[in-house]
Amino acid sequence: MAEIVLDKVTKRYPDGALAVSEANIEIADGEFIILVGPSGCGKSTMLNMIAGLEDISDGELRIDGQRVNEKAPKDRDIAMVFQSYALYPHMSVRENMAFPLRLAKVDDATVRAKVDEAAEILDLTQHLDRKPANLSGGQRQRVAMGRAIVRSPKAFLMDEPLSNLDAKLRVQMRTSVSKLQKQLATTTVYVTHDQTEAMTLGDRVVVLRGGLVQQIGSPQFLYDNPANLFVAGFIGSPAMNFMPATLADGKVTSPLGDVTLTDRVRQLVEAANANRDVIMGVRPEHFEDARLIDDAARGGGVVFKSRVEVLESMGSDKYAYFNVDGRHIESQELAELAADAGTADAGETAMALVTRLSAASGASEGEELDIWFDADKVQLFDPESGRNLTYSG
Amino acid sequence: MAIQTAPDQDQWTRPSIWTRWGPKARWGLIDILVIAYAIIPVLWIVSLSFKTPSTLSDKSFIPNEWTWDNYINIFKTTDFIQALINSIGIALIATLIAVVLGTMAAYAIARLDFPGKRILVGVSLMIAMFPQVSLVSPLFDMERSLGLFDTWPGLILPYITFALPLAIYTLSAFFREIPWELEKAAKMDGATPGQAFRKVIAPLAAPGVFTTAILVFIFCWNDFLFAISLTSTNESRTVPAALQFFTGASYFEDPTGTTSAAAVIITIPIIIFVLFFQRRIVAGLTSGAVKG
Question: Closest to A103 (Cβ–Cβ): which among B182, B191, B285?
C-alpha cells in the first residue's frame, strides 16, 4: 500500500509527439483512482509510466515519497492487470498465479497458501489446474486479477481490465472489482475509456484529453461541476446537450428560448467575465414534461414547445429526442468527443436534443410537447477556450 | 406406371456419383499423384539398394533377388562410417549454433527497435539469396590459407552462415506471434528481462525453435556443394560427398547398389529427427494467452 505522486510527469516520444504533458496527480494511500478519456488521450501511457514499462521523459514519479523514475518495474512492487489479461498460456491457473511469488523466491508452502487464498476470493478454486485456453473470458479476467493480488503489492494498475468482457459480465465484474478493492484497500489506478466505469468505480476520476489533465475530482463533482466543455461532454450518459447561445444582461438567448439566469448562476458568470457568445449546456435529466411541473416550480425554468421525434421508454424514465434548429456548434472539443463516440458522421440524429422525462410523462412520438428545463442547472461555456463560465468548484 | 417413372425422375434430381463424391475424389486423386511423385524415387532407390549387382538393371521395381550385401559392404568400409560421423557431427553442431544465434537475433528483430535493424534484415536476406556456387572458389582459397580446409569448422562455418538467415526468418515470424504483453506481464510480476525470456518467451517459442532446428539440420545434412569443394579426405568429408567416391568391389564394377544403400541410410537420421521433434511442434500453443 502506498501513495503515488505524479509531479509534472511528461512523456515525449522520440519523434516529438507529446503523449502526456506535465501531469500532476496525487493518489492517496488506498485510493481508487480512474484515468479516463477518449482513445489517444495518454491514459495508458500514464499507467505504463507508473508501471515502469515506459520511461518518464520529464518530471518525477514518487511512490511512498521515493523517486522511482529510474527503477525497473520489478523493483517498484506494483502489480498490473492487462486489457488482454496476458496470462501465460503454458502454465496452469495455479502456476500463473504463483509466478510472481516464485520469482520472489517465496517458499512452497507460502505460495500454496497465498494462491489458494486468492483463488478463494476470486472463486477460482475449482479451476486451479486448468490452462488459460480452457477458461472463459470472465475466468481469465479473474486469473489476471489473481496474479495481481497474490503478492500483496503496493498498488494495482489496471489497464481497461473489463473491456474484453461482454456487457452483462462487465457490469458484474465491475461490482466485484470495486468490492475487491475495498476489501484489500490497496491503492489502485484504473484506466478506462468508459465513462460509466469511471463514474461507478472510482473515489476520484482524472479526465484526460490529448495528454493534458482536464479535471480531477470525485465522480459526482465532475458531473455537477465540469471544468470545461470536454469534461461536460465526456462525463454523463446520455451526454449533455450543447447549443449556441448569446448572453446579455443576465439573460441567455438560446434555440430553446430566453433563459433568465438565477442569481447563483448570474454571479458565477459575472465573476467569470463571460463574453457575449457562449455555449449553453443542459443535462438530459434537467428537462421535464411541463405538465408535470407545478406552477411554483415553473417560474424557475423555461418552457418551450417542440415535436417529439423519437421516444424511448425505459420503464423508469422516458427518453424523448427533439430536433432543435440552429444547434450547430464549431468546437474542437465537441468534435473530438463526437469522433470518439463514433457519432461524428451520424448526421441529423447527433444534433438531436436528448431529454430524460419522468415515466409519468404523456409524451408520444410525433406530437407536440411542452418541455420545461431548470434554469438553475444551465451551464455556460466559453466557445473559444471551452472553459465552464458557471464553474463553482 | 407411377412406380416405374419414379426412379427415372430420381436419376435426374439426385446428384450423380461424380458430383456427390466429386470434391473428395478429385482431392484424393491429386493427393495420390503428389505422394506418388514424391515417394516413387525413394522407393526406387530402396529397391536398388536391395538388388544384387547382376539384377541391378533388370527393370523390375521389386527386386527379384533380395540381398543385404550392399548394406553390409558400406559398413565394412571405414569411408562410409567416417563420413556418417562427420555428417552427424557437423550438421548437429552447425544446427545448434545457428539456432542459438538465430533465436537471439530473431528476438531482437521481432521485439526491439535498434538502429540498423532494416540493414541487418536486408543483409541476411541477401545472404540467403546469394548463389552459393559463386562463393565456393573464394571460400576454398580462404580456408586453405586459414588452415580450415578439410576440417569440421571449415564446413560448420559456411553452414551457419547460410542457415542463419533461414533461422532468423523463421524464428522472427514465431516471435512476432507471441503477444508482447506477456513479457510486460512477466516484468510486472517481478521478472528480470532474462527471466522473462527464459520462463515465458522461450517456452512459447519452443515450437518455432524446433521447426527451425529441423529445417537447418536438413539444410546442413543435404549440402553437397560445400561438402565436395571444401573437403579432400575422410577427415571431414560428409556422406553426400563421400557417396561420390564409392567404388564397387573392383574398379570396373558399378557402385550403384552400395550408393543406393548409403543414400537410404542417410535418409534415416532425417526421418528420426523429424519424428522426434514433430511431437513438440504443437500448433496453437499460445491460445488462451490473450482475450481470444
Answer: B191
